[in-house]
């Protein structure tokens, strides 16, 4: 993987002179932050060597470089998922590329289901403070390349505690409720059953989705700091009474996207 990471990073460096320290990954329907970017430079995933294209509605597939407030950033406007048939290493490949480009902090976003209905509801933004990996594998399985990261990375604080303190401060300034919670990563693509949600709730998860965990593991492996925002687009099976639909997920995400974009912009310019 190391050689392919360098090949892709070399290609990108020849397309833009920007060397941002902050990367942002946009989940389903959470594209409003793109509108806040000035002096955009875009690269389609399909033009990048070794990059995979997302097949999921609500995800476009391009890198967007530019300025968000006073900071240079790079946005991933789509991500790959394990349920699409990609391998774990294919899913996390772009994050090692970001590290090679000089990115030091990545802000992950996702649209997901709420489990803890005492503090979460559709439209809530949850700052993830820990995760539970319920996927059948993780991206570090197999031979380790020390040039990418250590064999046994620590996960005591997978989401940077200092950055989470900044999120708390900024949320208060913006009048956005600051909610922290544990995210459970589920393989999908089917929505979880009532029995599975009961199990996940008993494990201590506050919300559940089909991404974010592999990325978090890889970024920690690479020594990149992580912030993660889970946008609650629906309550999980057995908690909400109506059936799930991806169209509704994207709809609620779009409605919440403006608030999330405001939060991200302020956080980016405060770290």
Range of helix content: 25-40%
* Major β-sheet profile: 5 strands, mixed, barrel
CATH homologous superfamily caption? Nucleoside phosphorylase domain
Structural class: alpha/beta
The average pLDDT score comes to 93
- Tell me the name of the CATH class: Alpha Beta
The 3D shape can be described as globular
Number of domains: 1
Q: In angstroms, what separates the terminal alpha carbons? A: 30 Å
Q: What does this entry look like structurally?
A:
With 271 residues, the protein is α/β, with parallel strands linked by helices. The chain has helices at 2-13, 88-100, 161-174, 194-203, 213-222, 246-268, and strands spanning 22-25, 38-44, 62-68, 71-76, 105-114, 125-133, 179-185, 207-209, 225-235. A five-stranded mixed barrel has the order 5-8-7-6-9, surrounded by four helices. Helix 1 packs across helix 2 (88-100), helix 2 crosses helix 5 (213-222) and helix 3 packs across helix 6 (246-268). The radius of gyration is 17 Å and the shape is globular. The model has no long low-confidence stretch (mean pLDDT 93).
Fold topology:
Layout (H helix, E strand, L loop, with lengths): L1 H12 L8 E4 L12 E7 L17 E7 L2 E6 L11 H13 L4 E10 L10 E9 L27 H14 L4 E7 L8 H10 L3 E3 L3 H10 L2 E11 L10 H23 L3
Parallel strand pairs: 1-4, 1-5, 5-9, 6-7, 7-8
Antiparallel strand pairs: 2-3, 3-4, 5-8, 6-9
Helix pairs in contact: 1-2, 2-5, 3-6
Describe the structure concisely for a colleague:
The chain has 271 residues and is of the alpha/beta class. The two termini are 30 Å apart. The chain has one domain (2-268): 3-Layer(aba) Sandwich (Rossmann fold).
